[in-house]
Write a structure and sequence with these properties.
This protein has 222 residues and is mainly β. The protein has 3 helices and 10 strands. The termini are far apart.
Length: 222
């Protein structure tokens, strides 16, 4: 058994999530928000981090199973184009004028969703524990329903509940999903990895590595 940083020596941890709605925005559609039909790896990472996060490791989603039929609905959302920098907000006390800079946009969302997330623990170079310690801490938190902050499904408007996995089979659906965000490398500079996603009988398999790029010229993603 190996516990070296970057190596995976155990079966993935598993958690099941359920929500009334979700929005996993396709990046190539900027004006109107259109959700992928399934959860994305970055959204799965966000849920896992909300449950259990430590700087000594990062979550690496390897598989996402879709457990309920895909249903969509339209929603009108208020968004703001006035986004001050962190320095302005902290040093100058600048506030967002949500009335003057409010835009109403349509969003194509998902309704009544449930997923089973499989993920590995990838240790950082400075980790001082074996990966099994973090895996067991995660399992205990899932069993207790404990989290550092409320997990959500792509948008904070859509909170999600989480619990230990059951044995239900994924839905029987195969579909090409197009280019999907694989991982965000936070900078500076911030970089992005992508991959060609495909749902196979209700299962989205996430490759170990994505294709580096800033989004420009990748199958129309800008």
């Amino acid at each position: 058994m190996s516990d070296k940083p970057g190596q995976r020596s155990h079966p993935p941890v598993v958690v099941q999530v359920r929500g009334e709605a979700a929005l996993f925005t396709r990046p190539e559609l900027r004006v109107e928000r259109v959700s992928y039909p399934v959860m994305t790896p970055t959204a799965a990472t966000g849920v896992l981090d909300a449950i259990f996060w430590k700087p000594e490791f990062r979550w690496v989603p390897v598989k996402i199973e879709v457990l309920r039929p895909i249903q969509q609905f339209n929603l009108r959302r208020n968004e703001t184009s006035d986004l001050p920098s962190l320095a302005d907000a902290v040093n100058k006390g600048r506030r967002i004028n949500t009335v003057a800079s409010r835009d109403q946009r349509s969003a194509l969302c998902l309704r009544d969703v449930e997923y089973r997330i499989y993920a590995q623990v990838e240790l950082a170079a400075h980790a001082d524990k074996r990966d099994v310690a973090y895996r067991e801490q995660f399992r205990r938190r899932v069993n207790r329903g404990a989290c550092y902050q409320q997990p959500f499904l792509g948008s904070k408007e859509f909170p999600v509940s989480f619990f230990p996995p059951d044995e239900r089979k994924p839905i029987d659906l195969t579909e090409d999903l197009g280019i999907m965000l694989h991982r965000i490398h936070y900078g500076p500079p911030t970089k992005f990895d992508w991959f060609t996603a495909r749902l196979e009988k209700g299962v989205l398999h996430v490759p170990a590595r994505g294709i580096p790029g800033d989004g420009v010229g990748i199958a129309g993603v800008a």
